[in-house]
Structure formats: C-alpha cells, structure tokens
Write a structure and sequence with these properties.
The protein is α/β, with parallel strands linked by helices. It has 10 helices and 12 strands. The strands form 2 sheets. A 6-stranded parallel beta sheet has the order 2-1-3-4-5-11, sandwiched between helices. Strand 1, helix 2 and strand 2 form a beta-alpha-beta unit.
Length: about 300
C-alpha cells in the first residue's frame, strides 16, 4: 500500500510540474524589437504602428525603441533588446555601420533581423525591405520635367548624408534633372543643402536660400518633414506668391495638408504601412516555418497630389 501511495504521489507531482511549466510557457508572448531611427519624424509613426499592429495580431509583444536621430543610441538599444529576450529584430537603422557589431551579436544568437527603409553593413540579415528610393528619385525628376518642360531653377534639400535614402533619392533625381548628368535637362541646380531629414535644418537652409536667390522655381526636399520646413520658410519670407514648386517624399499627412492649402505641389509616396506589416510577416514565417524571404525587397513609389 505504501509503495502504491508513493507511485501515486510521484505521478501527481509530475503532473503538477508539467502543468506549471505549460502555464508559464503559454503566459509569456514572444517579443519582437522594433528599433526606429527617429520617431520625431511623424511619417515614421506609420511604420511603427504597422509593425505593432501586425505583431500583436500574430501574437507577439512589440518593444519599440526610438533612436532620436542619433545613430550612437542604437547599439545599446540592440543590446537591451537582446537582454529582454526578443525573438526577432526589425530595425530602421540610424546609419549603415553604427549598429553593425550589435546586430552581429543578434545574428550569432540566431535571432532574425530585418532592416527597413535603410540597410546596415552586416552579413546575415534576413531581409532588407525598402522603398525603391532610386526609382522614386527618378520619378520625382520625371514628374518635374513634365510639370516644367522648359526647365527652371532648382534647390535640392538632402537628408542625412551617407544614408541609402539620401544617396538614392538624390542620385535618382539628379540623374534626370542635373545637366551635368543629363545633357538633355533644361534645369539648373541653384543650391544644395543638408536638412538631415528634419524640419528645422531644412527651414533654416531654405531661409538662407530665399535671401540669396530671387529666382527659385523648384525645391525638392528628400522627405516631407523637410518639405514642411521649406514651406514654412517661404511663408515667413512672404514669398508665397512666387509660385515656388515644393516637392516632398514620403506621403505623410503633413504633406497632404500643405498640398490642400496650395503650399506644396506633390509628394513621392512610399508605402510604410506595407513595409512595416511585411517585415513582421518575414520574421514570423522564419520563426515558425524557417521560411526565408528575398534578401532584398524593393517597394514601388508613386507621385501623388492628393491622399488616396
């Protein structure tokens, strides 16, 4: 009888431990870290919200980090994410090299990494999911050629120097508009400034250009946040009646507000909602089934002067 009681007690203890382990395993969600370069840019909220929404729908907890437009912050944020026990990382890099070592540690731990909007200089990233910025820049140039077939004078406001969006948007645009690259172009590049994809530097640079030039026909700002700064500078200088064509890049709400008021002409739209949700799908499919996406996925851009 004593032996029987010991056997029953052992079985009961085993079942209690098993149930306890099962409960603790089901209670904690897997985590995805989302590292954003700069949530001070309102358009990046679209990407953040898409990642969080898709992640939660698939049963993940999404931990969001803001790099505050300071690339030096992201390495420690990656380390923090690893300490939090994340299963995957989706990152919008501040630049292409500062996070490399930290991401190598993540990849060495078999944690899938998807970069969005910008690439990062490290081997083993699961996928680089990005707007086709080169094509988008060319599209802006072609739109401008159609708008002003006789050409005109152009101001070019660039983003963060060295980032893929800055290089590719500018490269695509100049390949069409700059006479040094396209002998058939009838445009003249009056001036170029670095706006760091931020409103205040773009506004300041545009203020200087308005004081310097009386004959500005076009301003291409490499994102909508900078285009807002450009529009503010034009208004402050009282140059609204000059007919300056302001072009942005993103498809942000702020751009459409300015388009509605006649203070901006058009924006090149990138689909951050698709990019964000698809990035989560990539890591989810890899974690659950080992399915790998394409190493580099380019998402098309289109020109728009009204919100779809």
């Amino acid at each position: 009888m004593k032996k029987l009681l010991l056997v029953l007690l052992s079985i009961l203890t085993f079942m209690m431990v098993a149930c306890s382990n099962q409960s603790s395993g089901d209670g904690g969600k897997e985590k995805i870290a989302l590292l954003m370069a700069d949530l001070g840019n309102p358009f990046f909220h679209v990407l953040r919200d898409a990642v969080v929404k898709q992640g939660e729908e698939l049963g993940y907890e999404v931990i969001v980090y803001d790099g505050q437009n300071d690339p030096s912050k992201q390495p420690s944020q990656v380390e923090d994410a690893l300490q939090q026990g994340v299963s995957a990382i989706v990152i919008n890099p501040g630049d292409e090299s500062s996070t490399a070592n930290a991401l190598r540690d993540a990849i060495a731990q078999d944690i899938p990494v998807v970069t969005v909007d910008r690439s990062v200089d490290v081997e083993g990233v699961l996928s680089y999911l990005v707007t086709d910025n080169l094509k988008g820049g060319k599209l802006v140039g072609e739109w401008l050629q159609g708008k002003l077939p006789e050409g005109g004078t152009v101001i070019h406001i660039e983003g963060v120097i060295g980032t893929a969006p800055q290089r590719e948007r500018g490269g695509g645009f100049l390949s069409v508009i700059d006479p040094e690259q396209n002998p058939d172009s009838k445009f003249e590049i009056l001036d170029t400034a670095v706006g760091d994809f931020s409103m205040a530097p773009a506004e300041s640079a545009m203020s200087d250009f308005l004081a310097k030039h009386n004959d500005i026909d076009v301003v291409f700002a490499q994102n909508d946040t900078m285009a807002v700064g450009v529009a503010r500078a034009i208004e402050t200088a009282g140059r609204q009646d000059d007919g300056i064509i302001v072009i942005g890049f993103d498809g942000a709400k702020e751009a459409y507000d300015l388009i509605d008021k006649g203070e901006m002409a058009v924006t090149a739209v990138q689909d951050f909602e698709f990019i964000g949700s698809e990035a989560v799908n990539y890591v989810h499919n890899f974690l659950k089934d080992g399915k790998k996406p394409e190493e580099k996925v380019l998402v098309d851009v289109y020109m728009s002067d009204e919100k779809k």
